[in-house]
Specification:
The longest helix is centred in the C-terminal third of the chain and has 12 residues. The protein has seven helices and nine strands, in the order βαββαβαβαββαβαβα. It starts with a strand and ends with a helix. It has a nine-stranded mixed sheet. The chain is about 35% helix and about 20% strand. It is globular. A hairpin with a 6-residue loop joins strand 2 and strand 3. Helix 3 packs parallel to helix 4 and helix 6 runs parallel beside helix 7.
């Protein structure tokens, strides 16, 4: 069964503590946290100090999605937040192997992220370095987009590439209950959900719709 990861970037910024409390109340185990530098993507969000503060408060496992132009420059600070999972964009650095190795050496799970325009073939020689592959289903860093349907084919292709390796597939961007089921059926293990969970109906009701969709 696939697992739902709320994205804290979609939460009410003025009530993050309450939002984290609500997430934990639902017995959710994983929290997706975006780190954006305003260079790799236009938005800026959640530096290492803010991530560490949330991590210190919470009992959740943190999945950090770095959208930064120079991940090697920031990776030590991100590792030191206490986050258990750290993902780096393939497009963000020519030193992707080295960055992934630093994450693994620190005892964290390492992931590689692919923007919609990047072919899954690009990560063929990285698969022995990673614990998970993050397939972006919207363009990174810009909220309010809708799910790109071609992502489903990409998930299937990544699943074939992984073969019998112990690597999870994560999908991030524009996921609703309908797309959650389609992603699960295509082979996804981890589903990041932001806007669909926060700021509409009650969090519990939206979360239950997602769970019902991926049963």
């Amino acid at each position: 069964m696939a697992e739902i990861l709320p994205s804290i970037f979609g939460a009410d910024i003025l009530n993050l503590q309450c939002e984290i409390d609500q997430i934990e109340k639902e017995n959710i185990k994983l929290l997706h946290v975006d780190v954006m530098d305003g260079n790799f993507v236009s938005n800026i969000a959640f530096g290492p100090n803010q991530v560490k503060a949330m991590k210190d408060y919470s009992n959740l496992t943190f999945d950090i999605h770095t959208m930064v132009a120079d991940p090697l420059r920031h990776i030590e600070d991100i590792i030191n937040t206490g986050a258990e999972m750290i993902c780096v964009h393939f497009e963000s650095t020519p030193q992707i192997h080295y960055v992934l190795q630093k994450i693994k050496k620190a005892g964290k799970k390492a992931g590689v992220a692919l923007a919609p325009g990047t072919s899954e073939a690009e990560i063929k020689y990285l698969l022995n370095e990673v614990d998970y592959v993050l397939v972006m289903s919207i363009n990174p860093g810009e909220p309010g987009q809708t799910f790109l349907p071609q992502t489903i084919e990409k998930i299937k292709n990544v699943k074939k590439m992984i073969g019998n390796r112990n690597i999870q597939i994560e999908v991030d961007g524009g996921i609703t209950d309908t797309w959650a089921k389609a992603c699960r059926d295509a082979g996804a293990d981890l589903l990041v959900v932001g806007g669909y969970l926060f700021g509409k109906e009650q969090f519990h009701l939206q979360y239950q719709k997602l769970l019902d969709a991926i049963k």
